[in-house]
Amino acid sequence: MIDNELEMYYGDDVKITDKITVTQPTVMQIKNFGEKDYFNAVYNLTSVGADLKWQLWDMGIDYTKIDDYDLFIKVISQLVSSKKKLLNNIKDTEQVKNVDIESLSKNPLKLILKDIDLADFKLYKDTRNNQVILYNTENDITINRYIYAKITEVVRKIHGLKRNNEIPANEKTKKDLIEDARDEAIGKQYEDFKSVLLPYISTISMYSGISRKEVGEMKIYELLYNIKRINKIQDATMLLQGAYSGFANLKGIDKSRLDFTGYI
Question: Which pTM was predicted?
Fold first, then answer.
């Protein structure tokens, strides 16, 4: 699916189908769009049952039994679509005054999927295979199980995310995990948002000596990859310095850790 990481590093678009393209924003574009909104969309789009365990439980759904794609079409697609349909139902002037029109119109996936708002899609059944799909009739765009899997694979790759494969050992553990996740969510709702990108921007700027403006022009994959590279360089440097000074023994150390140009 992802044939060329070099193209991804340079921020090239990844074509999923003729009408669906995953894009990469720059750091500055994310800042201007709203970092919190952007990463909420990324995390929601790539969520699986284990990421939404307590929310699903409250909906009467066992998070260990729901398929990723079924979760996407039933729940996640609504989380990552604009709410512009609600605006069409607001006729009364007083109602309009009390509505944040800009917020409802904002497409959470604007910087992720080119020219696609899932609010424009409806559920249909593909009569060829009886599979439920999301379909945009106006632009003839289909999202089926296979396309969804390709989209999430690319988005995870760009952002360095891995699928949450947590499986509870038994029913008691499952319920404990649900309550732990609920308690964590309740606690976090009172916390201020902490920037995901600020520590990375600062590290690259200080380490490389380039300006924050230049870092701001980096695409998100490049930024995150560069941080991993810095960590790898520092790890190799510390090991080699320790060996040369006699304070470290490299016997048994994976030799790939000593190559700061190696694959991450």
Answer: 0.89
